[in-house]
Amino acid sequence: MSDTILTLTGVQADIAQYHILQGVDLAVPRGAVTMLLGRNGVGKTTTLRTIMGHLVARQGVIGFDGMDITARATSARARLGIGYVPENMGIFSDLTVEENMVLAAVSGRLLAERRDRIFAAFPPLRTFWTSDAGTLSGGQKQMLSIARAMAEDRKLYLIDEPTKGLAPAIISTMVAALRELKDGGASILLVEQNFAVARALGDHAAVMDDGRIVWSGEMSELADDAGLQERLMGLSMEGK
């Protein structure tokens, strides 16, 4: 495979008494979008949380940009250039949109050029810049969640189901913003249940089942093979 920015080798992780990740092997190419796919409950979110350090890998190695980060704290991983957009959005409802953005910047300040780029990607954030984040709609909160990861350039973006529960018009805005990140050379590991979004954005794909990666390859190969989709994920997504 081409130059990789992230590798997981035999990674195992638990949540309470449950053994969720059972030996994950994954390589995320640099400068591309890798889709992490699979049925609900197979370990996709747990994989992102373990990469970010929210969960401890009890076995295996996590390598990032040539470094072993398996034992590093979440804050250290963020400083190395990993941005994380959790499924629950992770915004501060009692702070303004602007304050949320400033807090997300590792340097502690949001450059005007970066702010304007975010406004171009997500116009509603300009309108609600001084409003409390808790007053935003669900779609606007998701925009803010992704915008927070864009507050500074990251070497790697981990994004968990950014279009979940959103209206089609908001999904289109989200896809356009993620495509802009992609076109700018970003490395992205993206969990997404909407196969049309996965097909539109993904360069590579890895499919999980029962806490392991069971298939990896080009996203186009998976998108074009209904039989492979059914075998790996239990349903055909052809035409979706």
Automatic annotation (TrEMBL):
<feature type="domain" description="ABC transporter">
    <location>
        <begin position="6"/>
        <end position="235"/>
    </location>
</feature>
<dbReference type="Pfam" id="PF00005">
    <property type="entry name" value="ABC_tran"/>
</dbReference>
<keyword id="KW-0813">Transport</keyword>
<keyword id="KW-0067">ATP-binding</keyword>
<protein>
    <submittedName>
        <fullName>Amino acid/amide ABC transporter ATP-binding protein 2, HAAT family</fullName>
    </submittedName>
</protein>
<dbReference type="InterPro" id="IPR003439">
    <property type="entry name" value="ABC_transporter-like_ATP-bd"/>
</dbReference>
<dbReference type="GO" id="GO:0005524">
    <property type="term" value="F:ATP binding"/>
</dbReference>
<comment type="similarity">
    <text>Belongs to the ABC transporter superfamily.</text>
</comment>
<dbReference type="GO" id="GO:0015807">
    <property type="term" value="P:L-amino acid transport"/>
</dbReference>
<dbReference type="InterPro" id="IPR027417">
    <property type="entry name" value="P-loop_NTPase"/>
</dbReference>
<keyword id="KW-0029">Amino-acid transport</keyword>
<dbReference type="InterPro" id="IPR017871">
    <property type="entry name" value="ABC_transporter-like_CS"/>
</dbReference>
<dbReference type="GO" id="GO:0016887">
    <property type="term" value="F:ATP hydrolysis activity"/>
</dbReference>
<dbReference type="InterPro" id="IPR003593">
    <property type="entry name" value="AAA+_ATPase"/>
</dbReference>
<dbReference type="GO" id="GO:0015658">
    <property type="term" value="F:branched-chain amino acid transmembrane transporter activity"/>
</dbReference>
<dbReference type="InterPro" id="IPR052156">
    <property type="entry name" value="BCAA_Transport_ATP-bd_LivF"/>
</dbReference>
<keyword id="KW-0547">Nucleotide-binding</keyword>
